[in-house]
Description:
Shape: globular
Number of strands: 7
Order of helices and strands: HHHEHEHEHEHEHEEHHH
Helix content: 40-55%
Strand order of the largest sheet: 2-1-3-4-5
Strand content: 5-15%
Mean pLDDT: 90
Distance between the termini: 51 Å
Amino acid sequence: MVAASGEATDIMLRKFFTEWSDVSMETSLPPTEQQNPRSAGLGELDATGVIALMDAEEGLIARAVQSAAAEIAAVAEALARCFLEGGRVVLVGGGTSGHLVVQEVAELGPTFGVPAGRFVAMVASGTLVGAPVVTADEDDVTAAVEGLAALAVGAGDVVVGVAASGSTPFTLSAVVNARRRGATTAGVANNAGSPLLRQTSLPVLLDTGPEILTGSSRLKAGSAQKAALNRMTMAAMVLAGRVRSNYMVDLRGTNDKLRARATRIVADLSGADTPTARAALERSDWQVRAALDLLSC
């Protein structure tokens, strides 16, 4: 069954890549691969000059993310619904995008108390920090199909593909196959009209243009992706009730710094004094939400 599904996905992908290549040849290289005329002298600059050039380009990151605010919000709403209804969110990426999705997933447990397995990173990026579901080559479409099959992804789940080019085979294969499985799909890319944006129901274009170091999408493209992912997960967790006022109410105090923070949160939200807040936390295994429940907040 997986093999058949993978074969169908592979045929579909070959069609997409042929069409994308034809468009790319007609319209020159996609923006993330183009040379940036503003950085033509990069190799002759001193350190101060390099940093000044990077500073000058920085505004394009914020502009790209702000321009996609409505689309980012739509993905956040889908993630919140999925989380509240017991589904899973699979973030997919390769290269820089793979590192970013691993980082995003890794932070959700400590920050929002998200249980393991509810947000999953599926990556094609070689050796990574963390525990990605798949480690494969970016051109490997079969690994993505097998990864989704192993997770039994289907209706009720959301799969978000992230790729600067919008045409990474591993990532595109994942979202195409996820859609065939009935999952909601979203795509984050930095090239307009790319296959990833055309093959997902919730496309997010982050138009950051050419990099100052030609083709190095870890720079503006990657920074914009990180900002977009932060917004998606932050808004999703707010909608899912994981934030009260501007506090993380599913925080657990696992070290001195976090126990001090948890005490401040409980004291502020409950109106209790510090010793009372700390005592409630100690009775609740240092879980903020449980401590607030004890204090009837």
